[in-house]
Amino acid sequence: MPKTSSRAALRKEAPIPEAQPGSRRRFIQVAGTLSLSGAVGAPLAPACAAQPSGPGENEGKFDLGNFVLQSGATLREANLAFKTHGRLNAEKSNAIVYPTPYSAHHSDIEWPIGPGKALDPERYFIIVPDMLGNGLSSSPSNTAPPYDRARFPDVTIHDNVVAQHRLVTEGFGISRIALVVGWSMGAQQTFQWAVSYPEMVARIAPFCGTARTTPHNLVFLEGVKAALTADAAWMDGWYEKQPTRGIRAFARVYAGWGFSQPFYKQELYRQLGFSPLEDFLIGFWEQRFLRRDANNLLAMLWTWQLNDLGATPGCGGSLEHALGSIRAKTLVMAGETDLYFTPADIEYEASYIPGASFRVIPSVWGHQAGNGLNPVDSAFIDAALKSLLAS
Amino acid sequence: MPKTSSRAALRKEAPIPEAQPGSRRRFIQVAGTLSLSGAVGAPLAPACAAQPSGPGENEGKFDLGNFVLQSGATLREANLAFKTHGRLNAEKSNAIVYPTPYSAHHSDIEWPIGPGKALDPERYFIIVPDMLGNGLSSSPSNTAPPYDRARFPDVTIHDNVVAQHRLVTEGFGISRIALVVGWSMGAQQTFQWAVSYPEMVARIAPFCGTARTTPHNLVFLEGVKAALTADAAWMDGWYEKQPTRGIRAFARVYAGWGFSQPFYKQELYRQLGFSPLEDFLIGFWEQRFLRRDANNLLAMLWTWQLNDLGATPGCGGSLEHALGSIRAKTLVMAGETDLYFTPADIEYEASYIPGASFRVIPSVWGHQAGNGLNPVDSAFIDAALKSLLAS
Question: pTM for the complete prediction?
């Protein structure tokens, strides 16, 4: 077990609740520290608390202590929430890291995990770390004053991966990862893993995401941000009640970007149980974001907008140099009709990764092709991941 | 000269000013009625008032009286603003109708008009009618109570074209139009002209627009609408001061849709005199909409969202039937990277128009390829229009 630095016990106060708790499983709050092993998956460092949440599943929080960010600011008494599936083998060689995408909780992205699937918990020990700002890990909504809410410091993708690295190494004692895989902002973290810890990562499979946020993607996010913050009830982040009018507007703007033009033309939202279109805008999109906290949404937007793999220390600011340093076996995928992580942008980046494979998911589900909503797309991704893991 | 029905004189009160008057030329307010001929282009009906605004140019308002809309509602004391370029010839055979697109005034779309260009005022009599709701023609901002502001009735593309038909026939005594041409919402009006008045229209050239608003396009507009109305200062349309925070959010959402992903990646906004990106978002996009009235923007959004050529009386609700009824010589163009009037959607519609040509503008300027901003795109469109006019 690697060193465990002195860390404060997990905070005991309850976090500020999300606007509408929407995760399928309630996050297990573990007060104090607890060391678990064997039945709950893997030995844990004292600061890494976890409890079973299902057969072969554990949820927990890893205490990051006073966590120094890439900006130089310190996120005090920080912690990283996570969930694991399956068991770490004796050689500690079967770990997969699967970070969460924008606004998601670990429970929202379990579609590729399961017996017989690429991320098979009977074979792999799958760690799903929650992104900082997502409401489970340290976030504007659950950080104590004075760095709460609008004062929550800016967090980068690099910061997230440094935190996850500590969970993986200090928490689980893992020194080699079979695969890092992620969709969307999860892909951003995947690229970062391969560049920051090349000696640890055997394979990566970033899909529907770029290593650096493109200018158009940034503009799209400016739009959703402007929609949310147009609501005066947002109060520059110091609201006592969620600015729901702004969050609904945010969701409605997002709706146009999340799926493709033909998806809407073909009314494929009916496959998700929504009809007519307005029901989809409310029942899918507004619901998706109303369950979240406005400051959390904005904090993760910042992370996304500023994402730049080239800013990794040692890469000299060059995206291409950073991509060229990747040593992991790489499979990059793009959604054919993705409007903000476009196939062209993703292919450009993949071309700089030595030996990387690039595949396009043939789908009209736009960016959401990678979100486990359309069985055909999910099967495509699952098969690609299996092929990568077998290589 | 066709019949001129009894109409009230043009309203004498000043319209509610726009948020920030931004048109290059101040609209000439003509009180009462005035008949002009010869030097100002063409004989005008008594209710059609116009004054010179430049060499060979005239601006005016056409009195529509109590104008019954497609919905059955009556727009009282309605009028249609317009500008003309050039002179109507003795045979009245050289008229071109060029309607305004979303949020534009007639002065905003003059790029294809000029000596040597396709819309050559030395050869053609070019009528640019302002869309209802644009702040010059009858609009929420300039209609007297009780149908002002939030109470302005819903106006369709069909309504606009019926009003324009009256201007053209009653106002100018024209029975045959050489060309109807328009970009974006101007294209919508162009399709409508060809279907509603097939005996009058020799040629049409709709570009970067569809005859029926697609579901995805509707969703994009839901987004901009939600951003504007998230601002409580909008007050459901009963504001005394423009809801500028909402309008700025509206503009910022629009920014992502208006140009393509590669446009932003290649920083082509520098060609428009903006840099860095944030300057473009403010100086181009916010400026574009801050000069408009919020209710006007919303009224035209309604027109756009509900646009459906198939709803033309007699078409049985069928878009394809309506397109199939077009007898004009037709050239349809699409912007290669247009994100909301996609080439695929436009080509689909063009395929139903007998004998229509379909051309793609090879451009990364997205929807704005048709807005006269990029000289290469403008030259492409100009050449295509010249070719159509010569046929």
Answer: 0.89
